[in-house]
Amino acid sequence: GGRCEECQGEGVIRVGMQFMADVELVCESCGGKRFKDEILEVKYHGYSIYDILEMTVDAAVELFSSHIEENPINKKIVEKLSALQRVGLGYVRLGQSSSTLSGGESQRVKLASFLTKESASGPILFIFDEPTTGLHTDDVRKLIEVLQKLVDAGNTVLVIEHNLDIIKTADYLIDLGPEGGERGGEIVCCGTPEEVAKCDRSYTGKFLKDKLVM
User: Fold this and answer.
1) Shortest CA distance to 113 belongs to which of 149, 86, 148?
2) Long-range Cβ pairs for the range 170-173 (8 Å, 24+)
3) How many other C-beta atoms are found inside a 10 Å radius of the C-beta of residue 200?
4) 39 to 44, 67, 139: CA distances (angstroms)
5) What confidence tens digit (pLDDT) does each residue in 121-177 have?
6) How far, in Å, CA of 71 to CA of 13, rounded?
7) Max alpha carbon distance in the chain (Å)?
8) Residues with Cβ < 8 Å from 128, sequence gap 6 or more?
9) Which residue in 83, 164, 160 sits closest to 129, CA to CA?
10) CA 139 to CA 132: how far, in whole Å?
11) Residues 188-212 pLDDT 10s
12) How would you class 198 by CB atoms within 10 Å of its CB: exposed for 0-12, middle for 13-18, buried for 19 or more?
């Protein structure tokens, strides 16, 4: 209905190139705003749907939180968006294409989706592949808190990670190596972070010593 018919609501027109990657051109019909003029004319406290989709999660939470009393649905919106904040995605734009997210960001979006569910059928095994990629130190701490809550709720969390702040909080480590590529693939050692830190063959253990109070 309200989306731009020229670009099908994407804001860009993709032009196929014979010997190069496709080129994206800003849609001339909507100017990249993705919606018809009559839709963009509708404003919520001065913001069109395009303006809101251009907001970061943090900015959107601030906007809708300040107007919770006027509309009950705002509370639900804030609850959904707050889950994204909890996994360190407060900087992501609401209308950002999922194809532009990194692997770590995509995993955290899925985690946020789970956090907004009211119940689960039973304990779940979560597998994450370097979820801290691109995260600021403060956001890594937020992610650790969320992962710990999953474990406290009876779930199992398996994380493939190089970030020492994540590694040192693990209940159990499996250190693969001793090198990378053809020189790797062996289980160098396993155990608690403290036990791995005592393994002389483990590079992970050597760096863990500086992170742990032993």
Assistant:
1) 86
2) 173/204
3) 7
4) 12, 22, 36
5) 678 999 999 999 888 888 899 899 999 989 998 999 999 999 999 999 999 999 999
6) 36
7) 68
8) 107, 111, 157, 158, 159, 160, 161
9) 160
10) 8
11) 999 999 999 999 999 999 999 988 8
12) middle
3-state secondary structure of 156: strand
Is residue 134 classed exposed, middle or buried when 0-12, 13-18 and 19+ CB atoms within 10 A define those classes? middle
Both tokens assigned to 201? 């063959």
Beta-bridge mates of residue 35: 3
Tokens of 102: 């990194």
* Two tokens, residue 188: 């160098």
Q: Tell me how far apart the alpha carbons of residues 78 and 64 are, in angstroms, rounded to a whole number.
A: 6
- From residue 165, how far is each of 113, 172, 193 by CA, in Å? 24, 14, 11
